[in-house]
Amino acid sequence: MKLRRQKHAKKNMGFYKHNFDFREPFQVLLDGTFCQAALRNKIQIREQLPGYLDGATQLCTTRCVLKELESLGKALYGAKLIAQRFQVRNCSHHKDPVSGSACLLSMIEEGNPHHFFIATQDQDLANKVKKKAGVPLLFIIQNTMVLDKPSPKSLAFVQKLQTDQLVPEHQKQSIVQLKEKEGLAKQAGEKRRKRKRAGGPNPLSCLKKKKKTQEGQEPSAEKKKRRKRKRNRVKAEAVQSVQKNEEE
């Protein structure tokens, strides 16, 4: 199972390295929920995460996350001690701190330019992160850290990017124009075919052919009758000649 998880993590990391230019050291933004889950499951984040991501990491958080943990009191005191060991990244909420989830979302705005990972157990935050392209998501299941597979948003972004690279903008416009012309040509062709089908075959031509056939049959029947009458006449003349000879 461990090898399988490691294989999936390597595959997912390859996706972000290749398509979103993630490089070591990987910057991982952690919130209080992730720190609390790591404490509860006895996970040594600093020691275990570099091995799982197969690269050097920088664990970091924000002032808003630390303020939130302080406000929650003794219940999350252990998580606060863990978070305080990490580097603190500057956010835009110096005077008016916001919730940890809102702060982390603000850190990955505008396409996640600093290439942050988000490590959280907050399902609502995780769903919002998945709606942004190019943001790897880490969470803990039982006693194991897991790198989530690329979100549909990230996959769609990469597919569009690859299509744009394969087809330059001027070629796209040419393709659109050609499709429009092709559509008009098809419509005109359909109209011409419809007019041709509407005419249909000439029914009189069939009747004429039948009439010719009948006319062609009549002379042959008439000839047979004539030949029959001729044979009968020849026979009659022969009989008369024989009778005349006998009388003489």
From TrEMBL:
Q: Does the keyword Nucleotide-binding apply?
A: no
A GO CC term assigned to this protein in UniProt: small-subunit processome
Q: Which InterPro entries match?
A: Fcf1/UTP23 (IPR006984), PIN-like_dom_sf (IPR029060), UTP23_sensor (IPR057776)
Full protein name: rRNA-processing protein UTP23 homolog
Keywords tagged on the record: Nucleus, Ribosome biogenesis, rRNA processing
Q: Where is the UTP23 sensor motif region domain?
A: 192-211
Q: Where is this region: Disordered?
A: 179-248
